[in-house]
Amino acid sequence: MNISQWPLGKIMQLPDHCFGRRYLISCSLSVKEVVIHWDISELAFPEVCVVWELVLQGTSSTPTLDIFRLALGDQLPTTVAMMDGLEPVFNGLGLTGPGPRGIWVPTANGVAFTKLRMPLRTAGRRLVLELGPGQVERVSVICGLVVSAIPKDIPSCFNLD
């Protein structure tokens, strides 16, 4: 059954198995300098997707914590102003302030947000990660999002019309 014209809210009510293959979109940085660094994912998000999980892991050479930011972008930023102009992946995640908000590097056990099932309109952009400016000799961060595309067809046995 073709559901490509259904509203997103109705599609999100479908069972999980209707959303098809899930895959990882990730960025990672490992830096030694006390300057800002950026990374951009190799894979682009689907135009509209579902974020199922977010995993954050960091390491630091000292207990001092650093901050990173996540955004949607088409190219690797080269300035803080470019990053400031990008759309946050998660509104409200991180320190209070304008987006994309800063998130503490999770140095102990990392952070995993599972069972999110969050629709995200990305316009085919990629994940952008900003790290720094560093406060320590060495800091690393890995960010991964498990996503799937929005289904366009479902088996007719659902008969949901």
Could you explain the architecture of this structure?
Strands 1, 3, 7, 8 and 10 form a five-stranded antiparallel β-sheet that branches. Strands 2, 4, 5, 6 and 9 form a five-stranded antiparallel β-sheet that branches. The chain starts with 7 loop residues before the first helix and ends in a 12-residue tail after the last strand. It has one domain: Jelly Rolls (Sandwich), CATH 2.60.120. The longest helix is centred in the middle third of the chain and has 5 residues, at 80-84. With 161 residues, the chain is mainly beta. The protein is built from two helices and ten strands; from the N terminus they run αββββαββββββ.
Supply the key terms.
5-stranded antiparallel β-sheet; mainly beta; about 160 residues; 10 strands
Short note summarizing the structure:
This protein is mainly beta. The protein has helices at 8-11, 80-84, and strands at residues 23-31, 37-44, 48-60, 67-73, 87-88, 103-104, 111-113, 118-121, 126-131, 139-149. The chain has a single domain, classed as Jelly Rolls, CATH 2.60.120.
Q: SSE layout and pairings?
A:
Elements: H1 8-11, E1 23-31, E2 37-44, E3 48-60, E4 67-73, H2 80-84, E5 87-88, E6 103-104, E7 111-113, E8 118-121, E9 126-131, E10 139-149
Antiparallel strand pairs: 1-10, 2-9, 3-7, 3-8, 3-10, 4-5, 4-6, 4-9
Largest beta sheet, briefly? 5 strands, antiparallel
CATH class: Mainly Beta
Average of pLDDT: 90
The amount of beta strand, in percent, is: 35-45%
**What is the element string, with H for helices and E for strands?**
HEEEEHEEEEEE
Instruction: Please give the share of residues in helix.
Output: under 10%
Q: Total domains, how many?
A: 1
- Cα separation of the termini: 10 Å
Low-confidence spans: none
Cα radius of gyration in angstroms: 18 Å
Annotation, overall tally of beta strands: 10
Structural class: mainly beta
Number of helices: 2
Topology-level CATH name? Jelly Rolls
Tell me, what's the shape?
elongated
User: What is the CATH-assigned architecture?
Assistant: Sandwich
